[in-house]
Amino acid sequence: MTNPARGAHSDRPPRLSPTTDPTATLTALLHSFDDLDWPRARATLADTVVVDYTSVFGGQVETLDADRLVRRWQGVLPGFDATQHLTGPVLASAEPGGGAVLLEAQARAYHLLRSGSADPTWLIAGRYQLTVVPAADGRWLITELTLRRLYEQGDRGLLTLARSRAVTRREGDPRGAGGRREG
């Protein structure tokens, strides 16, 4: 049966987006990493984000301006030949007091850099935990972002090389500005 409000197939639910489904916000962020789509990454973030990568890199939990956080990602991800961020199901639970939603998902992030290294990959596996809040325009925005590392495989040293390559690419290669080359 056709339902004009829902398209050709009334038995299919409408496609959810970050404006209707808070869990889609995590997927949109991870896809933006892999596509080097910095405006899309920024669109998932509140103006200020509490970031906790301490289980991966040490240091302290930080509160960052969203534009600064995106610049950090731009400072490393374009240096890889490819990345692929995958999650399992995203679980959502309402925070006490309403409004905010806690998202949790197991994740694996593959990073490929053909550098002549014996192992051209670095994999980090863990659990993302995010807090998202509704924006006035209906989107869900990330206010807190945590990655809890479970394990790693491959060559973590590729991060250093990727950072130096990202600088070079930002200066002259379109991958630094957005979008990956095929191949």
UniProtKB/TrEMBL annotation:
Name the UniProt record assigns to this protein: Nuclear transport factor 2 family protein
Question: Which residues does the annotated region (Disordered) include?
Answer: 1-22
Q: Which domain of life is it from?
A: Bacteria
List the Pfam families hit by this protein, alphabetically.
Answer: SnoaL_4 (PF13577)
Domain named SnoaL-like: residues: 26-145
Alphabetized InterPro entries for the sequence: NTF2-like_dom_sf, SnoaL-like
Gene3D superfamilies for this protein: 3.10.450.50
